[in-house]
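Hey all, quick one. A colleague (J.T.) asked me to put the manganese (II) ion job into the tracker so the inputs and the C-alpha cells live in one place instead of scattered across chat threads. No bug as far as I know, just bookkeeping. Sequence used:
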Amino acid sequence: MMQSAEVRPESVPAVTPFETALGAEVSNIDLSQPLSADQFAVVEQAFLDHLVLVFRNQSLTDEQHLAFASRFGELEEHINKPTRHEQYEKVQVFSNVKADGTTLGVHPERGTLVWHTDKSYIATPSLATVLRSPAIASEGGDTLFANTQAAYDDLDEATKRRIAGLKAVHSWERSREKVGERPATPEQIAAAPPVEHPLVRTHPVTGRKGLYLGNHASHVPGMDFEEGVQLLAELERFATQDKYVYRHKWQVDDVLMWDNRGTMHCVTPYDAVKEKRAIHRVVIRGDRPF
Ligand code: OGA
Ligand code: MN
C-alpha cells in the first residue's frame, strides 16, 4: 500500500525498569506533544506496574505539563495560595528562588522533607503527582520513594493479621504540628477536617494491598493514642528500608510522576541558602481509599 510522505510511523515509548523495588524510566517519548492512545497506553501500564516514572530531557511549558497530567484524570485545585502559580491555578511551584533570583534560604515546604503520601488528610487523596524540574540542587534535594505494596507483602502473617481492619486518622493540622510548619489556619482545618483511612489500602486498579501511612497519619482510632503512634512509626520504618526505596537524583527538565496509592515519598535536605531548587507540580484527583 502507498503511504504519503508525511505519515510517519509513530514512536513507541520504551520502558526500562530500575533495579530498585519500584520505578522505571520511560524514553523515546516527547511529552511536549499530545500522546496517541497507543503511546498513552504504554505509559499508563508502566505507571501501574512500576508506580514511579521518570522521563528525562523534557523541556515543557506549564501548559504542556498540564496537558500531559490531565491525560490521567481530573486535576486538583490547590488550597495553598502562596505556592500557587500566578498564571496557572492548577500548577503549584515549590521553589526557594525569589523573583529577584536570590534564594529564600529555606526549603519552601517542610512537610515534604518527611515520608508522606500526597493529600492523605482528605477523604479522596491524590491519585498521582506529576513534577517537573526547572532548577535542581547540585547536592541533596533528591526525592525518595518507598514501595508500600512490596513492604506490605513482606510483613509477617501475625502483623498482617494485627493490622487488618485497622484505620488511621489523617490530619492536616497534626501533620503541620509534627514538622513545625506554619500552623494550619482555622479555614484550612474546616476545609480538611481529620479523616480515617484503612491502614492497609487496596489499589483500585491492580488490586494490590499496600500500607497507607506517612506524616499526615496521626494515630489509630480505638487504640491507645501512644500505642497507635508507635505502631504507625514502626510500620513506616519497616516500609522505608533501603530495599523498598528508589532515590531520584534530579536532572534539569526531568518529569517525575508517581502513584500515591502504593507509595510514600520525601525530599532529602539540601543547602537552601546556596542551592536553587524549583519544582512545578500538578496533581490528579483520586478516589476514596478502601
Ligand atoms: C510533592 C513533594 C517532592 C519534591 O510534590 O508532593 O513531596 O521533590 N515534592 O519536591
Ligand atoms: Mn508530596
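Adding what we noticed when we looked at it: The mean pLDDT is 95. Helices lie at 37-50, 62-69, 148-154, 157-163, 172-179, 186-191, 225-239.
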